[in-house]
Amino acid sequence: MADKNLSNVVNELENSPVNSHQAQQNQQKKNDRRHQDALNHDKSTDLEHL
Question: In 3D, which of 14, 41, 39 has the Cα closest to residue 26?
């Protein structure tokens, strides 16, 4: 099975933007995914037991 991150990079490289607007839209999608990922991983764990 192929590495998921590597597959995503290949997919992004295959989709070259047609104009600057499309390039900006692609960049915004990436930023939104990163922001959502950060929100999903923002839950601090209970470290009182250490």
Answer: 14
**Residue located via tokens 């209970």:** 46
Say if CB 12 and CB 21 are below 8 A apart. Answer: no
pTM of the model: 0.51
**pLDDT tens, per residue, the chain with 50 residues:** 678 888 888 887 777 888 999 989 989 998 998 888 877 776 666 666 65
CA trace torsion 8, 11, 16, 21 (10° rounding): -50
